[in-house]
Amino acid sequence: MYKGLQIFSLAGFIAILSAGCEKKIEPIDSYKVTVDYAAMNTYSVVANKAVNPKDSIQFDFTVNSVEPMTYIEIQKNGVRVDTFRVADGKTSFSGSKGYRIDSIPGDYTWRVLARNAQATFLGDGYKQFTLTVTPDFDFWSARLIAVPDTTAKTNACYFSTIDGMMYSYSTIGSNSGKIDFGYFFDTTGMSTTSGNGHTFYALSAPQGQIPYYDISSWTKNATIFKKMPTSVNFVSGLTSGGAINTLIKNNMTSGTTASVNKLATSAGNNVIGFKTVNGKFGAILVRRIIGNSPARTTQLEIDVKVQK
Fold first, then answer.
1. Which of 25, 49, 94, 167 has the fewest CB atoms inside 10 Å of its own CB, making it the most exposed?
2. Domains of the chain: total
3. Are 133 and 102 in contact (CB under 8 A)?
4. Residue 5 has pLDDT above 50, yes or no
5. Which residues are CB-contacts of 77 (< 8 A; sequence separation ≥ 6)?
6. How far apart are alpha carbons 95 and 84 in whole angstroms?
7. What's the pLDDT tens digit per position in 129-185?
8. Helix (H), strand (E), coil (C) string for 116-141
9. Contact 175, 162 (CB under 8 A)
C-alpha cells in the first residue's frame, strides 16, 4: 500500500510542476491589426458581392496596428496589386483606391493588409472579400441540333437564345416567338462542290426546302447572320458581353444575310455571328458535324453565346 501511494504522489507532483511551468503561447494568427472599410459610394466594397465584368470597385479603408506599420498592401487572389508607404512608422493609416474588375467570370478575393519595415506580415484584420464576376452573356455548350424530319417531326431543329432550349416542330407549341434560328441541310447545288449543305436560317427567310413544315401561323423572328473571319476565336475571344459586342457587332456592319450555309468545322466557316430581333449579338460555334445529307440522322454539335 505504501509503495502504491508513493508512486501516486510522484505522478501528482510532476503534474503540478508541469502546470506551474506552462508557458502561454498566443496563436500564430493572433495579429493585433484591424481593418475597417467604409461605404463611401456605390462602388465601395464592404462585403462579398456580385459584380458585372469590368465594373468599377473602390476600397476606402482605415488600418490600425499595435506595432508601427511601414507598408499597406492590397492583394487580389493573394497577389499584390498595390502598396502604400506609411510614413514615420505610424500605427494608423487611411487610404482609398479604385479598380476596374476583371472581365472573365469567376470569384476573386481581395484584402488590405499591413507589413512592418522588414515587410513582415502584421495582419489583415481577418477580413477579405469575395467579388464574384457574373457573366454578362449566356453560354450554351454541346447542343445537338438536327435536320428536320418529315414523318414524326420530332428532331430538334430550332434554337432559342432566350432560354437555350431547342425545339422540334411537334414540341414547339406556342414558343415560335422564342426561336432565333433553325437548321436544315440545303441540297441546292449538291451536284457540285459549291453546294449549300449545312444551313442556319431565320424563320423570316424563305424555306422552300421544308414544305412539310407549315409555319404560316408562327412568329418569324428576323435574325441576321454572318460568318466571322478567322481572327474571331469563339473560345478565347468571346469571353464577355463586351467582347461579343466588339468582335461580333463590329464585324456585322455589312454583309449580313437571313441565312448562312456551307457550314463546316474549319476556321472561317465554324463561327457564325448573329443579331437577334431584340438587337442582341451572339455567335454560334460549329464543333462537330454528324452526317452530310438531309437524312434525319444528320446533326451539328454547336456552342452558342449571346449577350444578356
1. 25
2. 2
3. yes
4. no
5. 108, 109
6. 8
7. 999 998 889 999 999 999 999 999 999 999 999 999 999 999 999 999 999 999 999
8. CCCCCEEECCCCCEEEEECCCEEEEE
9. no
Return all residues near 1 (Cβ < 8 A) that are at least 6 apart.
Answer: none
DSSP per-residue string spanning 141-201: EEEEEEPPPSSS--S--EE-TTT--EE-TTT-TT-GGG--EEEEEE-TTTTSTT--EEEEE
Q: The domain that contains 61 carries what CATH number?
A: 2.60.40.10
Q: Residues 51, 76: one domain?
A: yes
Give how far Cα 105 sits from Cα of 101, 134, 162, 257, Å: 10, 5, 20, 32
Give domain status of residue 118, yes or no: yes
What's the pLDDT tens digit per position in 188-224?
887 666 789 999 999 999 876 688 899 999 999 999 9
269 and 171 co-located in one domain = yes
pTM to 2 decimal places: 0.69
CA distance 9 to 14: 9
Residue 275 CA, chain-centre distance (Å), reads: 21
User: Is residue 171 a contact partner of residue 179, using CB atoms and an 8 Å limit?
Assistant: no
Positive or negative, the Cα torsion across 146, 150, 153, 154?
negative
Grid cell for residue 209: 426546302
| Cα distances (Å, whole numbers) of residue 19 to 12, 24, 212, 238, 267 | 11, 11, 92, 66, 76
208/187 Cα distance (integer angstroms): 11
Instruction: Please tell me the predicted confidence (pLDDT) of residue 8.
Output: 44
Q: What is the rounded CA–CA span in Å between residue 58 and residue 231?
A: 35
Residue 61 shares a structural domain with residue 105:
yes
Same-domain check for residues 166 and 127:
no
pLDDT score at 170: 95
Domain interval for residue 252: 137-307
Which residue's C-alpha cell is 502561454? 24
